[in-house]
Structures are given as C-alpha cells and as structure tokens.
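Checklist before submission:
- one chain only
- standard amino acids only
- sequence pasted in full

Submission:
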Amino acid sequence: MQVSFQGGRITAKNIKPLLTDKFDCNYSASGVYSRLDRLNMVWISGRSKDPKSSEEATLAFKENFPDEVEKITKQIKNEHIKVWWPDESRIGQQGSLTRQWATKGTRPRVIRQKQSISTYVFGAIFPDKDKGCALVLAETNTGMMQLHLNQISEQVEDGYHAIMMMDRAS
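Returned file contents:
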C-alpha cells in the first residue's frame, strides 16, 4: 500500500496500515500513539513555510551572497559597505474566547472584547558593530517604511554605504 500525504494531520488511522504493510504489526490506535511516545515523538506545531519558497533558491542565495556584495562594492568603488538586516512585525491584542463555568446544556451570554489593537515595530540591525534602530508605528505603509529607511541612513557613517537585506514582505 503506497500512502502519500500532501500535508495536514497524520493520525493513528493513517499510520496503522503502514505498520501492517511494512512490518506486519497490527496495533490499535492507542498502541500506535504509545509506540510514538516511546520513540520520543510528540505532536507539535511546525514552523510555517511559504508554499512558494524554494530551498534551492535559499541555498543559491547563501552561496552567491558574498559574490553579490563584491559586485556592488566594485560598482560603487567603495569598500565601506555595511549590510543591515531589517524586519517589521505587528504586535497586538485581539479578543479571545471567553470561557466561564455554567450548567451542562446551557450557553449563557457573556460580554467579551471583540476589537483588536495593534502597533507595528520596524527594526534593523548591523551586527558587525552591534548597531540597531527601531520605530514603533501606528500603521504600516510606504511612508512608514520610508521613515524607517531614513532612520537607518542616519545610522550609516559618512563615506559608507548600506545594503539592506529585505524579506519581500508585503
């Protein structure tokens, strides 16, 4: 039996036929989970990955990055280049489920917060010299990004150029 998964949750129901076909073992669902526990396997949330991302492109970037910096250095005829690593993040609070003790079979009405409040943090670091800068902003748009770029440029010493490593976030 050939089983193929394109993502999603794999349960004991999916694993049982694999164990039977491959190892001639017949386990109950609880037996499968017990075996997984003995193998030190746990059900965890994995780190998200963009479906359009390419591991080959990432490896190529890592391999070609020093050469690209050298090309830029030659183009601007300046060896004083600083690579800055910026990122932005939304930080906020959003109402969650409201729970309370109640009699079985009832569903009482409760007041709960429904609005969300957010702010945005734009930050950048230059690790070679332990430098960094950040802005806390009420919104994110092109104008806010320009403020962030202006702030970074103020941190770059005269006679130097900065290369920004952007993450292609919208």
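Reviewer check: The first strand starts at residue 81 and ends at 94.
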